[in-house]
Amino acid sequence: MKVNQPVRGVKVGRNDLCPCGSGKKFKRCCLAESVQTRPRTHPEKPKIRLKSASDVEGIRRAGRLVLATLDLVRERLEPGITTDMVNDWVHEFTLRNNATPAPLHYRGFPKSVCVSTNEEICHGIPGPRVLKQGDIVNVDVTTILEGYYADANKTFFVGEPGPQARKIVDVARQSLKEGMAMVKPGNSVGDIGWAIQTYAESQGCSVVRDFVGHGVGFDFHEPPQVPHFGQRGDGVRLVPGMVFTIEPMINAGGYELIVLDDQWTAITKDRSLSAQFEQTILVTPDGWESLTPYAL
Ligand code: MF3
Ligand code: CO
Ligand code: CO
């Protein structure tokens, strides 16, 4: 090391040249950067951490991998495959892309993806169940890439759907769309739930109460909770930089559910069909952007 190259204890003034050698003033270069990338919090809810531009880029990259994973599953889904096979595809594809499947060992969850069929609402554990023609199957993928989490799911048809399967999947898909359309600064979390509940109930379906959307990005489940039912104007106000999921679970019958003895799989109490779609949504200055974008 050369002399006169102090390594610590140097106080750089705001108007000095930036020590990174850019030739710009410190305040216009690395100082500005360090201020910008420090996570800000929601003005009313300090536990809600807002995402910086570089955080958003990280979540978007994780989101691209989630979508590629869902595409891979869709291409291979057919009558005769087991839900364990879906787990193996997701697990191996995630690792091959230098990422981690968030569900694996999360609060004791034993597999790398949730696969929920027909009357199963969510948190289905992959196993020996064989998918058959006419089933509907929700595949919920959450991936950690370079420390950032993205979370999305879709409900697929196995073979050709019957009319009831088509109906519940269409209503669930449109429910997510209705919820996303409410996302803009100034609206609240309650506006999202209100729009979803109003639409789903107008179609003769019900909205699951016991599971909600959630903040996501730095962790799997962050504040706030995002219910898929509620009143206009209720709950936390939306501000740019918030990232959360919207993931309505819609039942053909009642909203009541039972959790099976495996402690995870939630099924409809009346055994009616249930479907779900989920995306990870960023609140932007004039609305929203999906960080796991797919057409609805
Ligand atoms: N991906 C689910 C969600 O949308 C959570 C699954 S938790 C797990 O919030 F442990 F079951 F994976
Ligand atoms: Co989620
Ligand atoms: Co999910």
Q: Compute the average pLDDT.
A: 94
Q: Percent helix among the residues? A: 25-40%
Hetero groups in this structure are: 2-amino-4-trifluoromethylsulfanyl-butyric acid, cobalt (II) ion
- Per DSSP, what share of the residues sits in E-state strands of 2 or more residues? 15-25%
Question: Segments where pLDDT lies below 50 for 5+ residues?
Answer: 1-8
Order of helices and strands: HHHEEEEEHHEEEEEEEEEE
Supply the number of helical segments: 5
Distance between the termini: 59 Å
The biggest sheet, with number of strands, parallel, antiparallel or mixed sense and barrel status, is: 4 strands, antiparallel
Q: How many beta strands in the DSSP annotation?
A: 15
* Bulk shape: globular
Whole-angstrom Rg? 22 Å
Decide which structural class fits the backbone: alpha+beta
Would you give an account of this structure?
The chain has 296 residues and is an alpha+beta fold. 44% of the residues are buried. Strands 1, 2, 4 and 5 form a four-stranded antiparallel β-sheet that branches. The chain has a three-stranded antiparallel β-sheet with strand order 3-12-11, with no helix packed on it. Helix 2 crosses helix 3 (83-96). Helix content is 26%, strand content 22%. The protein contains five helices and 15 strands. It has helices spanning 30-37, 53-76, 83-96, 163-180, 189-202, and strands at 100-101, 114-117, 120-122, 136-145, 148-157, 206-207, 213-215, 222-226, 243-246, 249-251, 257-259, 266-268, 274-276, 279-284, 287-290. The structure holds 2-amino-4-trifluoromethylsulfanyl-butyric acid and cobalt (II) ion (2 copies). 2-amino-4-trifluoromethylsulfanyl-butyric acid binds at residues 103, 106-107, 109, 114, 123, 140, 142, 151, 245, 247, 278.
